[in-house]
Design a protein that fits this description.
The chain has helices at about 25-35, 55-70, 85-90, 115-125, 140, 145-155, 170-180, 195-200, 215-225, 230-245, 255-260, 280-290, and strands at about 5-10, 40-45, 75-80, 100-105, 130-135, 160-165, 185-190, 205. By secondary structure, the chain is of the alpha/beta class. The chain has one domain: Aldolase class I (TIM Barrel). It catalyses: L-aspartate 4-semialdehyde + pyruvate = (2S,4S)-4-hydroxy-2,3,4,5-tetrahydrodipicolinate + H2O + H(+).
């Protein structure tokens, strides 16, 4: 799965002012990612507000994305949640189209034990027609998938091929890299951690800020993979403040405001998310001027 090395973007789902999916803007955003050098797109990850889309809307977004990309770059589908049997059924019946893998977030809210997390992914692995990327993001799910659980899954299931790690624990990253199967991949799930994680041995990032700055995220990632950390550190530092602003009032409200300022539709998000407030807007606008 060399296609997962490099810079991926968890693309937002643009909405019209009335809350319906804005496919015209989605198409423009996809082109913007490809022109910016992004290596692959994740459709309907958590940044895509998948939890607030209906099953029919998800199918339509996946189909539109596949058709619009038209094999120009690889695609990953986000299919995750806290109802194991429902996720397994969605995964089993997924129309793979041109998708190469499924990104599945660790179960949220339920706060399962490590054995529960393992059994959850076991069921999904057995149902999936595509390789699986685990996704550990304790800040959203309320529970951490330990390195021991990640390694157990990586060793027990051949179709579990990678993990998107956003735990913030470099001890955990290091344990995974030390003990993983040779072909299993560690992917940064946190933009500011991309540089140090690749230095440890990660293969790239699935980015949020890349929605707005695909050229910078792509350049940063590839400089790191080439070992050119001196140049990579410059971009890393440039992106730190705008990345903070993307998350200060919830993802993807921040990055959607940036995209609105760049001419990509409106910054509508679906409840319970709301657009960022005036103070954050002003901070974003100031930082955008520095990055222009």
């Amino acid at each position: 799965m060399n296609e997962l090395q490099g810079a991926g973007v968890a693309i937002v789902t643009p909405f019209n002012a009335d809350g319906s999916v804005d496919y015209e803007t989605l198409g423009r955003l996809i082109d913007y990612q490809i022109q910016g050098g992004i290596d692959y797109i994740v459709s309907l990850g958590t940044t895509g507000e998948t939890a607030t889309l209906s099953n029919e809307e998800r199918k339509q977004v996946w189909a539109f994305t596949s058709k619009h990309v038209n094999k120009r770059i690889p695609l990953v589908a986000g299919i995750g949640g806290n109802n194991t049997m429902e996720i397994a059924e969605l995964t089993r019946n997924f129309d793979v189209l041109d998708y190469i893998a499924i990104l599945s977030v660790s179960p949220y809210y339920n706060k399962p034990t490590q054995e529960g997390i393992y059994q959850h992914y076991k069921v999904i692995s057995e149902a999936s027609p595509l390789p699986i990327i685990l996704y550990n993001v304790p800040g959203r799910t309320g529970s951490n998938m330990t390195s021991a659980t990640t390694l157990r899954l990586a060793n027990d299931f051949n179709n579990i091929i990678a993990i998107k790690e956003a735990s913030g624990s470099f001890a955990q990253f290091s344990e995974i890299l030390r003990d993983k199967p040779k072909e299993f991949m560690l992917i940064s799930g946190d933009d500011p951690a991309t540089l140090p994680m690749i230095a440890l041995g990660a293969v790239g990032v699935i980015s949020v800020v890349g929605n707005a700055y695909p050229n910078k995220v792509s350049a940063l990632t590839h400089l790191c993979l080439e070992g050119n950390y001196e140049q990579a550190r410059i971009i890393h530092s440039d992106l730190l403040r705008i990345t903070d602003l993307c998350f200060i009032e919830g993802n993807p409200a921040g990055v959607k405001y940036i995209l609105k300022q760049k001419g990509f539709g409106v910054d509508t998000v679906r409840l319970p998310l709301v657009p960022v407030g005036k103070q954050t807007q002003e901070g974003i606008e100031q930082e955008m001027k520095k990055l222009a």
